[in-house]
Amino acid sequence: MSTDFENRTSVWPNRNSESRSGSRAAVGASETGVAGGNVPEFSVSEISRQVKREIENQFGRVRVRGEVGRVTRARSGHVYLDLKENGDVLAAVIWRGTAARLTSFPEEGLEVVATGKLTAFSGQSRYQLSIEFIEPAGIGALMAMLEERRKRLQSEGLFDTERKRPLPHIPDVIGVVTSPTGSVIRDILHRLQDRFPRTVLVWPVAVQGPNCPPEVVAALDGFNALEPSDAIGRPDLLIIARGGGSVEDLWGFNDEQVVRAVAASRIPVISAIGHETDTTLIDHVADFRAPTPTAAAERAVPVLSDLLSRLSSVDDRRTAAVARLLGTRRDRLSGLYRAIPNPMDYVHTRSQRLDDLSWRLSQSATRSFESGKNRFQQISLHFSRATARIPEAWQARLETVAAGLRPMTIRRMTSEASRQLTASGRALSRAGHSGLERTRDRLESTSRMLESLGYVATLERGYALVRAGDAEGPVITDADSAKRLDGLDIQFRDGHVQVRPSP
User: Does the N-terminal or the C-terminal CB of the chain have fewer CB atoms within 10 Å?
Assistant: First the structure.
């Protein structure tokens, strides 16, 4: 079939002028109405195959420079795109096997140089470039596109400092988005194990090539979709990590969709892409940018030994502060105790005074009675002398009155003295009881203050009091002093324990 076609078309694609004139003659014959004339007849398939063969033979392997236009990735894995220049468009295709090997995925607006074969697609009567390799048209074009994208995203506020969130001090679960193979994940896990072991969830992704952006976006969305109540737990912190490489190798982390996924993450993100000198767009939008993956692990968790040391130091300071407080309160309590008189001394003084008053009262009553008796005797004597000078009738009458007057007067004087003595005793007793009540109240208040401020209540809460030597020794508040002693007395809530160094 092809031989026959070549014989019939030997006058058509050939650039021989004679053949072209023959073709024109044939057309002329057709135009004059001669049926068929000498114009050859072809099938659609023959034309399509011959055009395809001529295009492939004529151009073969070519390099085409142009700006990437529309880019479409089919479900089959093939990539369809347009190369544009000054209004001209060249359709191109990257087959699935070739697309999987690309180090950088073509993006719309990027100037590239594509290497491949020019071929025809008979299904749509068009020709297209089958790309075998595609690269940016120089680093300048790539960096210009990167700068334009950076400015545009920055103008949207994605890089603002106010958007960045603080990282958790000690995350329970850390999610790592990186390649499951290579040294990066090993370095991160090893560093976390050395500093502060944590639960690590690894979401494996491609870290370069056309699969990198969609897989990184899927990883971020997947981690954020987890809930704290899920079986595997939701990460408190995310690390996006990759080792060093060229601009093309790191280009996946400059992808706009990746940048927006990092900005939309509800979980704080640490970016650790490349080496310290490498910078990608996600470094600007991440909550923290680490120069290396190892530095990201160091920033994610503190050093456990440092935390324990700080905790021990704080505990020592707390113990010293409590000891100082107890010492100050003990000294103050001792001063208050010395200022308070002995209650029994107070009672004894009041009792002695009461005895003295009772004795003085008794003596006063006796003296009063004797004085009254002497006065009565003088009156009686004076009365006797006077009655000797009165008539007997009056004398008998006076004796009768005196006989009734004497016992009445003595009883009245005795009753008055007894009443005064009883009243004085009651007043003295009330004064003594009132003084004793006030003394008992002050004693109970001081006892309650001693109980609340003393160290005994502190011992009830689990603390212990350490003294040098025995229970009467001075209080020890630091370990160095304890190490230099031959023995210690430790007072607990329910008793003392003697501690001696082992021989």
Answer: C
End-to-end CA separation in angstroms for the chain: 112
Cα 438–Cα 442–Cα 448 angle in degrees, nearest 5: 145
DSSP string, 372-424: HHHHHHHHHHHHHHHHTTS-HHHHHHHHHHHHHHHHHHHHHHHHHHHHHHHHH
Q: Are 203 and 145 in contact (CB under 8 A)?
A: no
pLDDT tens digits along 304-355: 888 888 888 888 899 889 989 988 888 888 887 777 777 777 777 778 888 8
C-alpha 253/C-alpha 268 separation (Å) is 17
Residue 87 DSSP class? T
CB atoms within 10 A of CB 478: 12
* Separation of alpha carbons 107 and 360, rounded Å: 122
Residue 22 near residue 11, CB atoms below 8 Å: yes
Q: Residues 349-406: pLDDT tens digits?
A: 778 888 888 888 878 878 887 887 788 777 777 766 665 665 666 656 656 766 665 5
Which class for 358: exposed (0-12), middle (13-18), buried (19 or more C-beta within 10 A)? Answer: middle
The Cα 253–Cα 258 span in angstroms is 6
pTM: 0.47
